[in-house]
Amino acid sequence: MLKAYGVVIVVVLLICTIIGAVCWPYTINSWLEYAGKEPSVVWWHGALLGFCPVLGQITIPAAIGTWILMLFL
Prior knowledge:
Elements: H1 2-34, H2 43-51, H3 53-57, H4 59-72
Helix pairs in contact: 1-2, 1-4
């Protein structure tokens, strides 16, 4: 039983890492471009952020919020 919980935790962390590798670079680079800076965040930076428990869970809302705000800015 405990082994199954470990597998579930690893799978959730892996999914958050993959999503973070896509969404965090988009989010951070979009705001860097808006601020007039050069975009410098690559996929593995986003994967590391997605691996963090709290940051990995707010990846998608941050990307959606950025997308909506960039429509109007």
